């Protein structure tokens, strides 16, 4: 292949690189969840990586109409809006403006990309948020499943910090996990019960 | 679907969960590269996420025989061995035992999984390390390309910390980037020259 002429700027590549450097800021968005060793809070970039590993490892929990590779693509992108909108802890009061804030963030952040790619990434994020397609339902299950597994490993984590009851944990994470990955909920549910001392 | 009997343990799922919790330790492996805003060093988990985003965003830089989804799977797994073997900065002296240490780490870490999955993940990691297939060549290019883009954003980063010359930067990252993604090297090369003041 011929060497590109570096004096002719590749505007699409420049936009892609601006997006990738801006995305680096996700590493500074701190979540309520702590690492498994409780040493510090998790950030949204490493959380996103961990979720892609959950998807790859637990692929056999997905229904036959789920594409794990599309699930992984969704999970890579799913938290980028937090660069502008911040992370909203699941046990905190949800601000009324959260959905609107995240849509504005998606407009700006995906809008850094060349137009066709901005549209494609935005569509994947919208699909995840809507949680209606089989891929999105499974991706959402994993997003709800991973934090409790860290809380169990580190002795309470965000459950302790937010002083939540077992009922509240179950109502906030149970339905979405069970909808997309019933066996994962069956695995998790007795462990939540044991943690809360039943 | 019938509710699984929680009194009958799912041994495969238990092993997968042990692997996923162990993988959390990658978030504590600190790299030589700093974040784009220079606020701290990057860890290998968030680096892995960032690389998957590079693969998704720069997919049009891959040749027609590259499967981006396989590249992404490789990148999700590629640094897990560092949990045991540590990260070896590219500008530091490479220990003679590095390859052996990483293979021992791969045996242990992938060995936490049920056997068929351990074999599949290990094969993907071996393929990445060998850097011979089109997917692995492209994945390796991205792994070499991302750190310089952070160094350029944060004003020097590991180049400054290791007091490396421009020639050493070029020889350590250029060939592998150019092999798998020549246009990315054409984009990066004049920017390295500008940084080093040519």
UniProtKB/TrEMBL annotation, chains A, B:
Keyword Metal-binding present in the record's keywords: the answer is yes
GO annotations of cellular component type: cytoplasm
| Entries under InterPro entries matching the protein | HD_domain, YfbR/HDDC2
HD domain: which residues?
23-185
Q: Which Pfam families match?
A: HD_3
**Keywords of this protein's UniProt record, alphabetized?**
Hydrolase, Metal-binding
- MF annotations from Gene Ontology: 5'-deoxynucleotidase activity; metal ion binding
Protein name (Swiss-Prot/TrEMBL): HD domain-containing protein
């Amino acid at each position: 292949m011929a060497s590109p002429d570096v004096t002719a700027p590749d505007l699409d590549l420049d936009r892609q690189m601006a997006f990738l450097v801006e995305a680096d800021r996700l590493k500074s968005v701190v979540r309520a969840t702590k690492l498994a060793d409780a040493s510090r809070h998790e950030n949204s970039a490493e959380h996103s990586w961990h979720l892609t590993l959950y998807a790859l490892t637990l692929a056999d929990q997905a229904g036959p109409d789920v594409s794990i590779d599309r699930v992984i693509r969704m999970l890579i992108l799913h938290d980028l809006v937090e660069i502008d909108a911040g992370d909203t802890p699941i046990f905190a009061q949800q601000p009324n403006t959260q959905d609107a804030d995240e849509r504005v963030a998606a407009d700006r952040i995906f809008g850094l990309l060349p137009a066709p790619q901005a549209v494609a990434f935005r569509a994947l994020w919208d699909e995840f948020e809507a949680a209606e397609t089989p891929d999105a339902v499974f991706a959402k299950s994993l997003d709800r499943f991973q934090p409790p597994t860290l809380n169990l490993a580190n002795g309470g984590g965000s459950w302790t910090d937010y002083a939540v009851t077992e009922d509240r944990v179950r109502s906030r994470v149970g339905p979405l996990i069970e909808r997309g990955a019933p066996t994962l909920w069956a695995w998790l549910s007795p462990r939540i019960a044991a943690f809360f001392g039943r």
